Amino acid sequence: MDILSQDRVGASILSALRGVLPHAILQEEWQTPRQVTITVKPSALQDVVKTLYYEHYGWVSVVVGNDERSLTGVFAVYYVLSMEGPEKCHIVVRVEVPADTQEFPSVTPVVPACVWGEREVRDMFGLKPVGLPDERRLVLPDDWPDDLHPLRKDSMDYRMRPAPVADNETYPFINEAKGETTIVPVGPLHITSDEPGHFRLFVDGEDIIDADYRMFYVHRGMEKVAESRMGYNEVTFLADRVCGICGYAHSVAYTTSIENALGINVPARAQAIRSILLETERMHSHLLNLGLVCHYVGFDTGFQQFFRVREKAMTLAELLTGSRKTYAMNLIGGVRRDILGEQAAETRRVSAELRVDTQRLVDILLETANVGGRVNGVGLLDKQIARDYSPVGPLVRGSGHARDTRADHAFAGYGLVKNTIRSHDGCDVLARTLVRAEEVFDSLDLIDALLDTAPGGAILTEDFEYLPHKFALGFTEAPRGEDIHWSMTGDNQKLYRWRCRASTYNNWPVLRYMLRGNTVSDAPVIVGSLDPCYSCTDRVTFVDVRKQKSVTVPIEEVERYGRERKNSPLK
Amino acid sequence: MPTLSHLLLALGQALLLFAAAPLVSGLSRFERAKMHTRHGPGIFQDYRDIAKLLKRQDITPPDAGGVFRVMPIVMLATLFVIATGLPIFTRFTPLAAVGDLITIVYLFALLRFFFSLSGIDSGSSFAGIGASRELTMGVLVEPIMMLALFVAALLAGSTNLGAIGTAIADGEVRSAAATVLAGCAFAFAIYIELGKLPYDMAEAEQELQEGPLTEYSGPSLALVKWAMALKQTLVMGWFIAVFLPFGSATELSAGGLLVGLIVFVVKLFVLFGLVAIVENSVARARFRLTPQHSWLGVGAASLAFVFFLVGL
After folding, report:
1. Tell me: the pLDDT tens digits for A216-240?
2. Among partner residues A298, A369, A373, which is closest to B204 by beta-carbon distance?
3. Hey, which CATH number is domain A5-164, 3.30.460.80, 3.30.565.10, 1.10.10.10, 3.40.109.10?
4. Disulfide: which of A181, A384, B206, B252 matches A202 by Cβ 3.0-4.6 Å?
5. Is the dihedral of CA A278, A283, A288, A294 positive or negative?
């Protein structure tokens, strides 16, 4: 694809970089006018990422490992940086990792935001980030074989599960407290979190001195299965299933990544429809979280009321997509279903109702005695720590950083309308809650504006061909923050590599700083203010652990079960 | 020595309260659901829950000792004793020996002691935190309770709960302002003692996984749940007996008892209705701030004492 060099956004950042580090960049390749991949010398990697991060207002979106031995003879690690200074673009820093030494210099000591990404590359590809301060496993279980790295192309079949060999976890939790502390374990199963995650609170009396946690109890192996057995468009539907709340954001991110890689021009109407659905999703997700905030502080009346109103957002989703969840709407090149005149009118009616109901509930929430005391000044996320760790979504916006993918890197239909970025300087649970409450109203405004401005025309283009080994980024602003997907096409009608990063993945690493200095009773409120999604972060279960077996069910059987709801094929 | 009829009354009212306690807590749940705009369970749900739990297996944590095992029985037994002593349907206490305010306060303290001890004994860190909260709440609430009741006792000239109630009902107390103020302070202490939002500190579900209850299961959990329902009924009955005794039977007769019963049920219903409104329109208080709230109660009770001294 030809991209005229004068259209390129971010070229001046690269020339500035060349000025400081003259021989660092080996190769420069533009995927779209706002997306460039630069291959750098391993010795200059730290300096390049650090310069882009701190001097050009970059944020680490994701770190992608890739086994490119069959293509170039080496492994590669991609550091994806979202540049949010004056020139808003994505710069991907690629470093080649030799197949014999399998080592590369760790960036974490200079840019802490890379810590989870490098730990995951270490687990999944067996590449060694030299100098990585935290060398514990991130994704793999404690008793997983040492030399088995699931995402290497020659390592294992996607159906293989090494037998468990130990009952006890040996994961070392880190406690940086000075004095003596008592351990309060929260999870993997805890009454306020419906998904598994293990938190260790190190407490003195009721005060949390330090905290550590581990996730990935429900890793579903989605990336491996997509790379091993799914066609390009099947992955769209798999991406929907990454999350039970904000799955649509993932399928938009995935399709956008392929569209960017192949240079597909998606019809404007399809893009507008995508944005409308993303906003519907954001609304029901935010209303869910507002309800949960009430629940965590013990104000169950508010919780139930928010869920009552949230039902209208679900009705809206059903109206627009045919299902209460915004599933199965996307294809590479567009969407599967148009919004007709009647549906548009009904959408406006429901959204007007929602506006009134939500306003009333938000007022009640903020005026309820002692709710303020539970969220004000609780779970502080320092502005500088937020800067160092690149969190996303309402979490970072609650700490005074106005970053929102919808405005920074207008994707889908967001270029058609005006986007407001909400941010608050409180750095506490209250600030995050206020950001979410305001965004619900923004979503309603956006839906109305998009219905007004959406042009007519086609909703799907099929005018493209799949080319091998093209790669690019796709991104969305999900309710919890930026979702980013990095996809590389293969030569067998399957993806060569798919890296899908959910927003909460970037938000977990800062949690420990938010928990410090609060009390045990605040812990659920703080964890809840992240609006965490455990299994999206984990992205990975075909095996029924309880029964120790897996079943393959033919699609006809599943469809039959869906209609009749009798005789479950899984029993 | 109590007469046989007094003994029968004591036993009868204790059994009746014991049997009706899950209905009282079921009613609270029902009202809560309505305020949540939920359908919610019926008012007999707590009986079903207890019946279900009684059939389940009883699992004790390996670290737990004897205290953990005997606590449900101690708790229920203590409450049963309290139930025999409170003047519930009658103006006088069925068992004068139990119906003394100091006895009742200490019986409740015994309960709290075992409840907390079982939390620590279970070995769970959540139960431990819940236990320490329970004791802290005790330290905060008992002074209010004692001070308010002592003012009432001084006014009536007796520490027998029945005598205090009679004096208040007959208007024979010297200082009306002191009585009302002591009643308010006592009501506040009772509300905290009910363990409802915003003061359900020890059993805070979202924070501590129900605190000392965390490790109980099966029949023992059923007993503890039953006991907690009975405790809520009894503390409310305690408040009614001392400060709202109007309408209860002054003589031991079938007609009087029947009227007393009906009046008691109505008062209980109204008071729990008020509690439900408060409970469902607030969030849980921060545990750290609870002492600031309880000072209010201590202040009111002290003021009642001052009023008593100056005879207002």
Report:
1. 888 888 999 999 999 999 999 999 9
2. A298
3. 3.30.460.80
4. A181
5. positive
